[in-house]
Amino acid sequence: MHKEFTIRGAKAGKHVICEKPMAVSAQDCREMIKACDDAGKMLSIGYRLHFEPYNQEMMRLGQKEVFGKVNKIDASNGFIMGPQTDPSIWRLNKELAGGGSLMDMGVYVVQGARYVMGQEPIAVTAREEITRPDLFDEVEETMFWTMEFPGGTTATCKTSYNGGGNHLRADAEEGWFELSEAYRYGGMRGATSKGKMTFPQVNQQALQMDDFAYCIMNNKPTRVPGEEGLKDLKAIEAIYRAAKSGKRELV
């Protein structure tokens, strides 16, 4: 749906905010970007956390190397589908969902590691785990992966439909910084090796929509363009390849 309606919106002369993950493949992302470029319309992806103060602080601390070079990142995001889960729900239908926990919840983890570093991963290793094959016969239940960044930094990551997790942590040369509630719509919590983070809780999506309106009215580029969604899909595709091959895959 994301690809179809983004392209339809662009052809109808509309600027577009598309939810994440942007599409089910990197090639679809490229076609969406081209359609909006051809129409002269702006495309923004629903990365609300780029407008959220705690996550913005993680970006600043990592990218500015406030605690020195980041050596490793640890991140996870997931929830438990209970025993009474209806097997017909869209999340378990690959045609509707495009994938399982990696596409749904893991995109936050890929994003988190990327925006802490301000860099793109160069390679990944990964493995898939399924403990409930009766439920997860089309999409992945749990995925573990490691992303390698330029300079040797690694991100150890997990996403799951059979386990909780909502954190983002970076260990650097001279300290650490983390969010213990990283990706939710509210109730964010964070700390560093120097003390607790204290920022206001905000309406993340309202801030993104206000910013997008400002960008449109002032002909300014959005901070979360279609290219940002494409970068995530390139990493996600590499994770799927690595889980299938059992080998290190380039992004």
- How many domain units? 2
Q: What's the alpha carbon Rg, rounded to whole Å?
A: 18 Å
CATH H-level superfamily title of the largest domain = Dihydrodipicolinate Reductase, domain 2
Low-confidence stretches: none
Named CATH topology of the largest domain = Dihydrodipicolinate Reductase, domain 2
Strand content: 25-35%
Order of helices and strands: HEHEHEHHEEEEEEEHHE
Description:
- The chain is an alpha+beta fold and 251 residues long.
- It is built from seven helices and eleven strands.
- The strands form two sheets. Strands 10-9-8-7-3-6-5-4-11 form a nine-stranded mixed β-sheet.
- The chain is globular, with a radius of gyration of 18 Å.
- The two termini are 25 Å apart.
Quick gist of this model?
The longest helix is centred in the C-terminal third of the chain and has 20 residues, at 226-245. Helix content is 36%, strand content 25%. The chain has 251 residues and is an alpha+beta fold.
Write the layout of secondary structure elements.
Blueprint: H1 2-11, E1 16-18, H2 26-39, E2 43-45, H3 53-63, E3 70-80, H4 94-97, H5 101-117, E4 123-129, E5 142-148, E6 154-160, E7 162-172, E8 175-181, E9 189-192, E10 195-196, H6 204-218, H7 226-245, E11 249-250
Parallel strand pairs: 1-2, 3-6
Antiparallel strand pairs: 3-7, 4-5, 4-11, 5-6, 7-8, 8-9, 9-10
Helix pairs in contact: 1-2, 2-7, 3-5, 5-7
